[in-house]
């Protein structure tokens, strides 16, 4: 069964997708001001933009973790490093911009803040990916 050429890529894809979804859930738990899925269902564009940037950044980190490592342990370790890096970068930005209450502004559908957070996450994803190379 393991000898089939599609088995390992399929398992890797499923593991990567699960890692992205679990990371998404972790980010939601750490941002208690709102639930991402509920806000998007209400049509909150700012939250959707921020979430899209976060998903792109997570995808970049998981891509690097998968392609740059030879073992599942290394892949998991670097993936966790990247996710922690994204969280730390977001919180650092939040601390350095105290006049903008990011979570409140996103919940109020401030699209300018949504675009800013989208760009922040993409930038952090690029930096994390470069560090992981």
Automatic annotation (TrEMBL):
Q: State what protein this is by name.
A: DUF350 domain-containing protein
What protein family does this chain belong to?
A: Belongs to the UPF0719 family.
Provide the protein's localization: Cell membrane
Q: Which PANTHER family match?
A: UPF0719 INNER MEMBRANE PROTEIN YJFL (PTHR40043:SF1)
Regarding the membrane, this protein is recorded as: Multi-pass membrane protein
Lineage of this protein's species? Bacteria, Bacillati, Bacillota, Clostridia, Eubacteriales
> Where does the sequence pass through the membrane?
6-23, 44-66, 78-100, 112-132
InterPro entries annotated for this entry? DUF350 (IPR007140)
Q: Name one GO cellular component term.
A: plasma membrane
The protein's UniProt keywords, in alphabetical order, are: Cell membrane, Membrane, Transmembrane, Transmembrane helix
Q: Does the keyword Membrane apply?
A: yes
What Pfam families does the database record attribute to this sequence? DUF350
Entry annotated with the keyword Metal-binding: no
